[in-house]
Each structure stands twice: as C-alpha cells, then as structure tokens.
Amino acid sequence: MRSDAAAAFNRMHAAAKAAGINLHVNSAFRTMEEQRVLYQKYLNGTGNLAAKPGYSNHQGGIALDINVGGTGTSTYKWLANNASRFGFARTVPSEPWHWEYRP
Ligand SMILES: [Zn+2]
C-alpha cells in the first residue's frame, strides 16, 4: 500500500479494535499480474467483479478490501460511521467491502 494510506489504515484499525471491531483486510496492494489474474477470473465467471489491469485503485495503493460480511454487520456499521475520520470512503456502490483512502 501507499505509505500514507497504510499509516491511516493503522490508525483506523487501532480505533476499531478499541471499539471491539476487527478490521480484517482481504486484499490491499495488487501487482499488475495479480490484477490480470483477478480480471481473467471475473471474465471467466469464476471470480468477483474486478477492474481491468491498470485501472484498479488496488494498483494505486489506496484501496482496501475489508472483510465486512455485508452492510448489516457491526463491522460495516462501524466503518460507515467512522472511516471518514481516517480519510477512508466507500467508492464502489456494489462493493461494501471496498474502501479507498481519499482524504
Ligand atoms: Zn476492492
């Protein structure tokens, strides 16, 4: 990840932990090759929606996929209420797990 995004995430992770929430990251920075594989899985119908190689914010080092378990969970609600304090925002309407550092 980009160092400023990683530092902000570490602060958010600590605040969540203090509130009894564990922010588990499934995916952060991806290389071009990793993005190519994910995109091919998406095209094949065997993977989640993924951006074309070169077009993912995961490649820019500012995106995180956090294991929220849906929009009704305490983890998701904590993020919805607190992530903006740390510079994070949800940017993909269909992906409640995808958060980006956009201070
Ligand atoms: Zn994502």
Strand arrangement within the widest β-sheet reads 1-2-4-3
Q: Based on CA inertia axes, which overall geometry fits?
A: globular
SS elements, strand count: 4
* Bound ions, cofactors and other small molecules, one mention each: zinc ion
How many domains, as an integer?
1
- H/E series, N to C? HEHEHEE
Just give the CATH class: Alpha Beta
Major sheet attributes: 4 strands, antiparallel
Low-pLDDT sequence parts: none
Question: What is the SS-derived class?
Answer: alpha+beta
| CATH architecture descriptor | 2-Layer Sandwich
Return the CATH topology. Answer: Muramoyl-pentapeptide Carboxypeptidase, domain 2
Estimate the mean pLDDT confidence: 94
Provide a count of the helices: 3
What is Rg? 14 Å
Binned strand content: 5-15%
- Our measurement of the CA-to-CA distance between the termini, rounded to an integer number of angstroms, reads 15 Å
- Please give the share of residues in helix: 25-40%
